[in-house]
Design goal:
TIM Barrel, about 20% strand, alpha/beta, 8-stranded parallel barrel, two-stranded antiparallel ribbon
Length: about 230
Amino acid sequence: MLGTPTSSFVVRDWIKVCGIRDTDSAAVAATAGASAIGLNFFAKSPRSIAPDQAAVIVRKQLLQTIGLFVNHSLDEIDAIATQAGLTAIQLHGDETPRDLHAIHERHPDWHILKAFRVADSLQSVAEFVAECQRLGVPLAGCLLDARVEGEFGGTGKVAPWELIANQYDRTNWPPLILAGGLTPENVAAAIHAVQPDGVDTASGVESSPGVKDTKLIKRFVAEAKQAFAKLIPE
């Protein structure tokens, strides 16, 4: 496991609701017992949020808050995260380990999560993690999502649970966060099948693209908590 200052950011039974766009939804997630929320700065996403709006949510300090970026430049990430008051970021595009190294060099105190879109192999994850280790880049977690050509996440497609469960190197890789089409209806089955350290949902708790549903958020967190509680401790 990466011995880094960020290694405890994602802990067992971690639950994240991504694509939050208002303080009310953030408060619902916090009250329900979620661990973290995601603020999406990808302009093409229906869940995108402006940095000044994100700052209002961050200042509430309700729970862990993570900024989601897709192929932003280092300067863009720096400026947006600084304006929003973020010290945790999730990179969901085609960023390389060297890109992460540059971010870590500039902000060694930041928590960095990397998302991977997977289909039939975790070889790309293995290579990425190995290069990060070689460069001394701390990864707070790896988020595994379903691969959909031309998309960077939030598609609602379910990730390959069996493949992830069989191929993820839990001993030597960062904490595993499972994403991809998770809903209140299937999150318990996903946790049972994959036994991840955490789960992440966006479209699965929405009434329409970008519009969070209070009841779905509460149900998702409750189902995830119950499922995590049933896992046999490692």
